[in-house]
Design goal:
Shape: globular
Number of domains: 2
Radius of gyration: 19 Å
Number of helices: 11
CATH superfamily of the largest domain: Penicillin V Acylase, Chain A
Strand content: 15-25%
Oligomer: single chain
Helix content: 25-40%
Largest sheet: 8 strands, mixed
């Protein structure tokens, strides 16, 4: 992974305490202004999506989290206490995918590439995280130690417990939003909480899929793909788990070891209710661009080649704002899962702007 440049222009934070509520309180106190600003930005997005009153959604989301992952409910309570915010606002922040799905869905972006590599090698796993320009400064890389010595590392938004990440056992998770016509009815377990629990607990890809399945079986209400990737020591493979209100579907790598995902369903019956190919068909174009470019490369794709593919502007793989304004989309970061080092390699901003060879990187 040493070939992948990493800029230092993003925030990194390591929790100093390990108990969930105390950890959350510490995070909220240290990052009070950033958590508040992120909550305000999402409040505006919720209003634009036609769901301005999210108090009830936050209360219900916290209840669902408390039942499914009580430690993470305590962490959310601690973040709210530390940041001086009502707990329902922080819970709503963690349920932002579900709340946005209950209104007028916005565009869905993000492009994922996984190449398993040959025998004895670690996978290459990366994604572009595309989201709103107004949230370009609202994310960080968070290292979370647990009382028993486990470590979770996640790239997430301030106040949200998890998203993209990897743990010390070599299990990683990439994250793509999906849109289904059944989204937004009620409140399921928030998908960001699913990603975090998976990272906290899973020691193998199989274990991670069981955790995702336990949430999917109860019916999530904001459709999402969690692509689980395992290091050599964690059952080297990759599987995309498509969570939707009807359950869960699984996408496997092709025979060469290549697994791609954008923002449309690849499994049935979920694909029969997919709204993305109609509202934002660029997901089809991005998938096809990568499918053709990387065909047959599952065994020998290098990190630099994956980064070059994610820098392609064809179909909007690498996203730049079409106009000025906070509600434009762009690639906020490109993230590599370094399964050998159990670390994240993060390139802030569109990957096409990465440092040229010989330039200093963080």
């Amino acid at each position: 992974m040493s070939a992948v440049p990493v800029r230092s222009a993003h925030t990194r934070f390591t929790s100093a305490v390990a108990e969930p509520r105390d950890r959350g309180r510490e995070f909220g106190e240290i990052w009070r202004e950033r958590v508040r600003a992120t909550a305000d930005a999402y409040g505006e997005l919720f209003g634009r999506a036609g769901v301005p009153d999210t108090d009830a959604s936050g209360v219900t989301a916290l209840a669902r989290v408390h039942t499914w992952a009580p430690g993470l409910a305590d962490e959310i309570r601690g973040i709210a206490e530390g940041a001086g915010l009502p707990v329902n606002r922080v819970a709503a922040l963690n349920a932002r995918t579900e709340i946005l799905a209950s209104g007028r869905p916005g565009p869905g972006e993000c492009t994922t590439v996984v190449a398993l590599g040959g025998p004895g090698t670690e996978p290459v796993a990366a994604q572009n995280w595309d989201w709103y320009e107004s949230l370009a400064d609202s994310w960080l890389e968070w290292e979370i130690p647990h009382p028993d010595g486990r470590v979770t590392r996640t790239l997430t938004e301030f106040g949200v417990v998890g998203k993209i990440g990897i743990n010390d056992r070599g299990v990683g998770c990439l994250f793509n939003i999906l849109h289904h016509r059944r989204d937004g009815s009620g409140m399921g377990v928030p998908v960001h909480v699913v990603a975090r629990r998976l990272l906290d607990e899973a020691a193998t890809v199989t274990h991670a899929l069981k955790i995702a399945g336990s949430a999917g079986s109860t019916g999530t209400t904001g459709s999402t793909t969690l692509t689980v990737v395992g290091a050599l020591a964690a059952g080297k493979t990759a599987v995309s788990a498509e969570l939707w209100p009807g359950g869960i579907g699984h996408v496997l790598p092709d025979p060469d070891g290549l697994l791609l995902h954008t923002n449309h369903f690849l499994t049935r019956p979920a694909a029969d209710g997919d709204t993305e190919p109609v509202t934002d068909p660029d997901t089809i174009v991005r998938y096809e661009v990568l499918r053709r470019r990387l065909h047959g490369r599952g065994a020998d794709l290098t990190p630099d080649e994956a980064l070059a593919a994610l820098s392609d502007h064809t179909g909007g793989v690498c996203v730049h704002p079409a106009a000025e304004g906070p509600h434009e989309f762009r690639t906020l970061a490109t993230v590599f899962l370094d399964t050998a080092a159990r670390a994240l390699r993060v390139i802030p901003g569109p990957p096409c702007t990465r440092p040229k060879p010989g330039e200093a990187v963080g």
